[in-house]
Amino acid sequence: MNEPTFFDPPQLLGSWRLVSAVAEDEAGGKLPPPYGPQPMGRLVLNADGRMMAVLCDGRPQLPAGEERAYASYCGNFRIEDGRLITRVDAAALRERIGGDEVREVELNGNRLVLRPPRRADGAQRILSWEREGPP
Asked: Of 12, 17, 19, 81, which is most buried, counting CB atoms within 10 Å of its CB?
């Protein structure tokens, strides 16, 4: 990972559009993109401490037999030690509800990069977002 980016939590507030969703194995090799070749998503972080994230495969049509990748959750969030931590109170996957979703944060101008923890198989997802409008 790159050097940590220091930021004030208010810099994260606003609406963000997903511009890239990639995955790597433990050795840094490319894995299939988690939301297909045309990822689509929105992330909203409000000043009242609420957030929501929605991500999916944005292709208008999928190949026969392929299911559309989709994820969503929302809850109260806080920023600690360069991490976005959300206490989930609603989600597409019921097992997320009541738990914390933790994302390492990098902020570079109008580009926000979030990294969830590595998965059990060692895969690392990297989600890049671009700010929509003023913060």
From this structure: 12
Q: How many domains does the chain have?
A: 1
Report yes or no on 93 lying in a domain: yes
CATH number assigned to the domain comprising residue 107: 2.40.128.360
pTM for this model (two decimals): 0.89
Q: pLDDT digit string (tens) for 27-72?
A: 999 999 999 999 999 999 999 999 999 999 999 999 999 999 999 9
End-to-end CA distance of the chain: 26
Domain containing residue 45: 9-132
Q: Is 134 exposed, middle or buried (0-12, 13-18, 19+ CB in 10 A)?
A: exposed
Please report, to the nearest 10 degrees, the dihedral formed by the alpha carbons of residues 72, 57, 32, 103 taken in order.
Answer: -30
